[in-house]
Amino acid sequence: MRMTLRHLQIFVAVCQEGGTTAAAHKLLLAQSAVSVAISQLEQHYGIRLFDRIAKRLHITQDGERFLQYALHIVQLFEQMEQEVKNMDETGIIRVGTSITIGNCLLGGYIRRFRKAFPNIRVKAVTNNSEYIERCILENRLDLGLIEGLVHSADLMAIPFREDRMSLLCPLGHAFAGRKVEINALRGQSFLVREQGSAGRERVDRMLGAYGIEVDTVMESVSTQAILRGVRAGLGIALLPSLLAQDFLEREEIGEFYLSGISLLRTFHIIYHKNKYLTQGAQAFITLCK
Asked: CA-CA distances (angstroms) from residue 131 to 16, 106, 167, 196?
């Protein structure tokens, strides 16, 4: 005879209700069915769960030990039932974003989502695009919002917003406020983001297409450090306009442009192609779009 979850539920009910009659009433079963289930448990495990004295059941020491396991299993199952049935209204959505999106957009998205779905918690992490992709592939995140290109065939990518990159230079630089040919960038000192970031990938791809080697004077995970380096006259940088906006408005740095080259890019929502998306996750995607 194979033991089932139902056997454990009956045993727990007998313990909690104090007898087979009350347990049968609670479970909407015949009393004989409850008694049979208890006997089957005792026969299967070769232990006595109850002493039957004066027509009453008294749980044994073995029964007490067995009850601890049974309670844990039954409660865990009931918790699973409750959470899975309400997964679209409760639970956690794990979201990862690349730096620009995390700094400039994520807070607004989460605030709007919480207002619409107050029982769903958004757990967020911000890192470079390569890291976010890796977390999605390893199922450590449910959704990713990234600035760069998608590099894995196992990822689905949905465009949700356009953004512009800005070429930045110190005030008084020869390029400031001008439109220049890309070959003018040869020999210029660059301040760049770290490998694995969408910004660094954009610099390498753009200059590499014209055979221009990047002369790096600073590499940093911090956009603020790069902006301050440009302000200090260390060199030029290519950064998201959203992150450079404050420095440009305060006229602490200058901006220049490339002739015939667009610096527009597209943000993408990514998730694993085999990932089941709850209604909550789908709603978060819709909100971002």
From this structure: 50, 17, 25, 7
